[in-house]
Amino acid sequence: MNKPSIPFIIAMTFFMLTGTFGRAQNSLNNKDSVDRKWWKEAVVYQLYPRSFKDDNGDGIGDLKGIISKLDYIKSLGVDVVWLNPIYSSPNDDNGYDVSDYRDIMKDFGTMADFDTLLKGMHARGIKLVMDLVVNHSSDEHEWFKQSRSSRNNPYREYYHWWNAEKGKPPYRYSLFDVNHDAWRYDSLTNAYYLHYFSRKQPDLNWENSKLRQEVYDIMKFWADKGIDGFRLDAFQFAAKDTTFPAFPQGFEKNFTQYYGMQGNLHGYLQEMNNQVLSKYNVMSVAEGAGNTFEDAHNLVDADRNELNMAYAFEGVDIAKPEGYSLLHLKSVFSKWDSAFAAKGWLSVFLANHDQARLVSRFGNDSPQFRALSSKMLTTFLMTMRGTPYYYNGDELGMTNAGFTKIEDYRDVQTLNEYQRQKNLGADLQKYLQRISFESRDNGRTPFQWNSTGNAGFTKGKPWITVNANYKTINAAAQEKDPASTLNYFRRAVKLRKDNLVLVYGKYSLLDKQNPDTYAFTRELNGKKLLVLLNFKDKTATAQTDINLSNAAVLLGNYDRPSKDGTLKPYEAVVYELK
Ligand code: GLC
Ligand code: CA
Predict the structure, then answer these.
(1) pTM of this prediction?
(2) What is the 3-state secondary structure (H, E, C) of 381-428?
(3) Contact 234 CB / ligand 1 (< 6 Å)
């Protein structure tokens, strides 16, 4: 090929920068003006590195493993990967306890591996979003070692200490502690330190400007490497009232109301935006979204210069062991959509590494309906307004782990709660029953690559047991089957990427009171799509008043979708209305 001319290069650069390249079919006129951003148009694939692919045979997923699967990730059509923490960590909470923010966890590899990974992603047009875990560090971080060494140490103020001569500090609830007590006594300096999560995750003191500066420097370190965004772990809890007033009894039942969005949190985010986020082409997503729409808006209102995207839990929290009501799910998603219709931006998700599996919680993981219901849920996630976050393995319809013994579990939260139940003399069988539905480990079993030993995840002994169903549910088998959940996911992603109406289009809920089906339209610049989903294991009919006789089927999980709104069990159809 001849060398490209200078004007050609300039034109190409222009197209690439403005994002118009290859998107001609998506071009918008001014009618429904939208504020286009790459992170709004992205499909985020969440990757749990510990369980994705083990390269060196130690049973733990690693960066080289991910590198070996980049072509697979690319083949999904996703364009952003959110990687759970890969920093140095003693792994009390699988990397959410960071001991060095500028180094890679030994289990996962080296900084050279990281650089290769980032390069490999960018070469394939995939962006990388990293977890930023700065509500707390590990107790093995140098800052904490210094901080606990003496009351006069310069790092003392990096954490929250309560001197014991003042008596016991007012009760604070800890999510992961065996006694749910967030204050841990340390005899070395006769003081308590605060940890909202496990006792190996002491909370950082955001009221200290030096600490904040350290965090911004860490962010710059990674942004300078070229990463494309940050997911701010547990960030809504970072600011605290350091006088530690007593909270009313029972506050822990609604602890986010007391812990979330306190003090000068917005000020800290504006400072972070000013010093770091605004200086790079990075996206930022909060974990959680406060307690109200107003909180969520304030986090992501572009005029306030804080974060880009809220990540509200109300939807993902709906599924319970006893089931859930579709009316409830529809009302929650519709409510959040309408609250953000004019301003701000949302994440759309129903699963992540803190939840059991998508299909087991929101669909039906029986052999008869597993694939159908997981395709239906995929259709939902890819057709809502807001940026979809899709958790690795869900594209295969991976199911809950099926663990029956406590020895199978690895998660600090699950194990500490077991210990607590035991201490309380509670019914442990009942607890095992509960965690078989809701433990986070259900979503953390190794990725099922193929039907060879350990699902092709490792040649060694996996850090957590592989799901016994890997011989039937695995990527290799699904690659070969055009009708597999994996290939359906690819089509659904492509549909979203090809239709800006699915990103920006107005959402309208239809047939609101139907307890079995979810029907909605998306509209932009005269283009109108209709999405029909049956959330039940029986035939159901969506009443929409829309004449489907001329509608084109863009996507569906059955061969011949009806034209009258009748939906087979777990059927999903996306129509373009003419
Ligand atoms: C967030 C993470 C979770 C972690 C916790 C403490 O909720 O998603 O995995 O355990 O924060 O860092
Ligand atoms: Ca490994």
Answers:
(1) 0.94
(2) HHHCCCEEEEECCHHHCCCCCCCCCHHHCCCHHHHHHHHHHHHCCCCH
(3) yes
Nearest CA to ligand 1 atom 3: 354
User: Average pLDDT by consecutive 10-residue portion of the chain (578 residues)?
Assistant: 45 45 45 88 98 98 99 98 98 98 98 98 98 98 98 98 98 97 98 98 98 98 98 97 97 95 96 98 95 93 96 96 97 97 95 98 98 99 98 99 98 98 98 98 98 98 98 98 98 98 98 98 98 98 95 97 96 97
82 lines ligand 1 (CB under 6 A): no
- Please give the Cα distance from 182 to 202 (Å, whole number): 9
Question: Which domains are assigned to the chain?
Answer: 1-30 (no CATH), 142-194 (3.90.400.10), 505-576 (2.60.40.1180)
**Atom number in ligand 1 closest to CA 440:** 9
Distance 197 CA to ligand 1 centre (A): 8
Euclidean distance between CA atoms 212 and 158, whole angstroms: 9
DSSP labels, 265-329:
HHHHHHHHHHHTGGGTT-EEEESB--SSHHHHHHHH-GGG-S-SBBB-STTTT--BTTB--HHHH
Beta bridge partners of 556: 573
**What is the number of the ligand 1 atom nearest to the C-alpha of 96?**
12
Active site residue 306: no
